[in-house]
Amino acid sequence: MIWPHLGAEKPVVRARPNTPSATGYGMTGIARGTHAGATHVEMARAMFEAVGRAVVLDEKHMDAVTGLSASGAAFVYILLESLAEGGVKVGLPREVATLLAAQTMQGAARTVLETGDHPALLKDGVTTPAGCTIDGIMELEDGKVRVTLIKAVVKATERAKELMFDAV
């Protein structure tokens, strides 16, 4: 770990914000160091909740926070860009397609956060029998989008672990 280089018994709180923090919609993972107390953690939480949400986890989860939340913003941008490109492909102007894709993603995310419902349940609520959505979902499944996204988080997490070991 890098922390021992800071000196003996210094309170350290590790925080991993993501780039949406710049707009007030960030997500930050926070881990308490060995010598940090509850006050240090609460101070860090308050700081990062000013730019989004924060979650306190054990240090062992911080690489996963990097792989999912920090790298995940880029994965979401790729999904958003792809949805917008689909809209362009079917005739929408690019700026309209991008607006529709971005607002749809924001709305879907807010629905998960505000209702607390599992994403699968919400997906099922949109998917009508023999409708448009199920055909689109079949294309996503055929393209292995779900597995590819899971693998992306795993790879990013593994790389975060490698980088941490390189820093020691």
Describe the overall structure.
It is a single chain. The protein is mostly helical and 168 residues long. The protein folds into 2 domains: 3-59, NAD(P)-binding Rossmann-like Domain (Rossmann fold, 3-Layer(aba) Sandwich); 70-162, ProC C-terminal domain-like (ProC C-terminal domain-like fold, Orthogonal Bundle). Helix content is 61%, strand content 11%. The longest helix is centred in the last third of the chain and has 23 residues, at 145-167. Helix 3 packs across helix 4 (94-115). The protein has a 3-stranded mixed sheet. The chain is elongated and about 65 Å long.
Describe the structure using short key phrases:
single chain; 168 residues; mainly alpha; Rossmann fold; ProC C-terminal domain-like fold; 2 domains; three-stranded mixed sheet; 7 helices; 61% helix; elongated
